[in-house]
Amino acid sequence: MLVIIGYVVVCVGVFGGFAMNGGHLAALLQPLELVMIGGGAAGAFLVGNNAKTLKATLGAIPTLFKGSRYTKDLYMEMMSLLFDVLSKVRKEGLMSIEGDIDSPEQSPLFSKYPSVLEDHHIVEFMTDYLRLMVSGNMDAFQIENLMDIEIETHHHEGAAPAHAIAKLGDGMPAFGIVAAVMGVVHTMESVGLPPAELGILIAHALVGTFLGILLAYGFVGPLSSLLEQKLEESTKMYQCVKVTLLASLNGYAPALAVEFGRKVLYSTERPTFSELEDHIKKSKSK
Fold this sequence. Notes:
Blueprint lengths: L1 H19 L10 H18 L2 H10 L11 H21 L5 H5 L5 H4 L2 H4 L2 H16 L4 H50 L5 H55 L4 H10 L9 H12 L2
GO biological process, one term: proton transmembrane transport
Main location: membrane
Membrane topology: Multi-pass membrane protein
């Protein structure tokens, strides 16, 4: 929603200011300029990215028009789930959760938290390392190192769409210049026309440069920044799980291990100690 509002503000600010200055908005309506800029940028985008990046980028774009799913409620659900799992481990031993981590969809523990269960990647991350803890063949240092590598891989893969869109935006001013040069060439071919008509052709050519810059900095470029912010939010989920599981592996009680995880969250989504404690109590009563 904020993306659409931002686009409206950009259009009102740029085109509204132009109209208030006495400009004619119809002069800016140049479909052929948009075809040259958009077509050139799309072609370069296809050339500069492999199929995996293209697929990831196309999949990421719709998420930009939705609000963030990483809310305080989601974090509290995830930490309540971690508390339940670690409490079961402490009471009944590591082997008691083997069935839960092998089939989290059928697990009574995981099914209490549908919002977490919807995120296949975070559930897989959590269950994979709980499985390693059950195996008992790796110490905390080895698991932490492996977690760091996996989180880095997740971050690297998630950054590909943001980088692809950023490069697309960086190239649009150049394609705007290409469109403008094509317009100038057309103008020079028509040098025998009256000055009034030549002025119109020159104005059309300059619109290409304008549109290239506007699309780059007003529409495409901000999307890459937003994708990076969303990636940072998703990475924070993994860090929270990592810190909580490592605290448990180092011998801390479930309540204290979850507190370790709570501390790594951003302050805007981090629940207070009392909020988390109340949420865990309510989840236990279900």
